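Thread: magnesium ion complex, take 2
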Amino acid sequence: MERYLDNDIKYVSGVGEVRARILEKEAGIRTLDDMLHYYPFRYVDRTKVYRIGDIGESMASSLVQLRGRVTGVGYVGEGRKRRFSVSVRDGSGQAELIWFQGIKWIEKRIEVGREYFIFGRPSFFRGEMSMVHPEVETVEKALSRKVESGMQGIYPSTEKLSSTFGTKGIYNIMCTLWPMVRDHIADPLPAAMRDACGLVPLAEALYNIHFPQSAEALRQAQYRLKFDELLGVQLNILSRRSERMSRNNGFVFPKVGGVFNTFYNEKLPFPLTGAQKRVIREIRSDTVTGYQMNRLLQGDVGSGKTLVALMSMLLAVDNGYQACMIAPTEILARQHFASVSRFLAGMGVGVAVLTGASPATERRHALRGIADGSIDILIGTHALLEDKVQFSNLGFVVIDEQHRFGVEQRARMWTKNSRPPHILVMTATPIPRTLAMTLYGDLDVSVIDELPPGRHPIKTVHYTDAARLRLFGFMRQEIAKGRQVYVVYPLIKESETMDYKDLYDGYESISRDFPLPDYVTAVCHGQMKPADKEESMRQFKSGEAQILVATSVIEVGVDVPNATVMVIESAERFGLSQLHQLRGRVGRGGEQSYCILMSGEKLSREARARLDAMCRTSDGFELAELDLKLRGAGDINGTQQSGMAFDLKIANPTLDSQILQRARTAAEEVLEADRALALPGHEGLRELRRRYSGETKFDFSMIS
Ligand code: ADP
Ligand code: MG
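Output below.
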């Protein structure tokens, strides 16, 4: 049945074909329903107007509304620096409004002598107040709109949207839309659930999210809409989980046998930490239940996850199954292969490696060996997902660094045997519990919360480019002590050639300041030939090169205990979690290690908060929580949840953890009674579950 709300937004008066296409492209709004679910990201209190004279420097950068008369306009500066300057005055003082962009657009709208409402962030210079790119509207126009509570929604926008619709355009469309749709809004939640959870009806929530009648009505609207999103996600996750548990077709590993014991008793070069032991026990008990294991192993960088993975794989081998381990990059895969081979040397366990770059002989050897069963453990990259990779009896899969790996890919591994193998997903990103529950709710979670003994905390400092000489001096000092240094450049996508310029400029400047023959600098990035990459890595690992210049995405997963300095260039471009990951590459040996964050002078508030946090703490969980808060609190909507594949528009699993808990309980209850959501009255819930079935890809390495 065609729902009224599925109609194209172009039919709303004032939109039309062309502007509809812009809405779709810029904001993903295609239907009336999409528009209805396009929420304001903040509200202007139109009743609160500040007097210019009352705004003190303490209010710099916070959002305020003024009402003032334009006393003059002018142009300042030349060429690219040209700006449009407007003087406004009220009874208490005067302020300057400044535009660097969109001058043509704004100058037509400003009239000397007229009175305007002005909304923006004040800044101060020598006691004079100014505002850059404020929103302005004539007083007449603002007062002609009836906004009862005084709160008016400000919608997320893009440059294109603003130039097409103006500052109030989306709001105006919403005003036209509302009377059309108000009687077509069906509430997906059964009344009993709404009552039990104290939720207002959906239509009421939507009305108040767009046109809040009071602060309390807005709060309830937000609560309700967040609840729906989180409920949709939970219905998905819990359904997936109960389906998995109902199948009861997991492999059983009843025994701990010779391979595991020999390794543990004779090969292990150090005692396991308590946390490692606990996690191995958890995995072991999963694999005797008859259910297929899906476990997420979280542990900070350097906490020894690889060893846990290896010992789990040995359990599989002891029980006659094969195991494989998938790493996110070629280099990591080869490094795992090298260390696993070393650990298992002389034990009669067949180990092979397979990557996209494997030479023909290596590939043949691996494929033949896993098919005939002579290879017990295969280590590689995404190449292992290919259909050509056929195991004789795969029972256990380890996936290292989950955040680059989606659920679909996990599911592909399930088909590599007649029954799905056990899956252990490892991530060095300490995901806050609340979020793990939302995003990985179909996984059980283990945590390694203890580092191997004898690690020094890493000293972290933030330098601006002005301190580059000091940085080089410090690098020389460390190198003179026999240590090694990483210099990492941001790279958003491996395909973005532009970013390589920074890396090469940096490489050249380092090669000049650290000349041969005293110094050797290696360079390594994703666009190099595998053989060249490997040569660079070999140089650095062997200590032949003291400096490694590399990109962030791929090459830094290496374990070089002698490296004590991690220099991160343009550190402001990295997300917190990624900074933390990179920092974890040093401090692996017994020496004091350092992380140096380089940035320009000018930083956004958020970037500064990230760098400050890095200098303040090395607790991965604390950083991960903060990361989410910083990103969740971003002013510009749309980037807010960009790390999440679930299409959450308003809920933030970290900040809204209480609502999340309630939604989870509600989802559990309803699924308990009606697992398929097939009962009458549950159509809406079924639709909600479908709407939020987006996969749990969570890219924590995203660069903000
Ligand atoms: P992760 O993958 O969690 O970042 P790794 O497994 O690479 O960490 O381990 C980091 C380093 O610590 C490796 O050199 C590893 O051999 C070492 N290591 C692991 N477990 C222990 C332990 N229990 N005691 C001492 N060193 C350990
Ligand atoms: Mg690791």
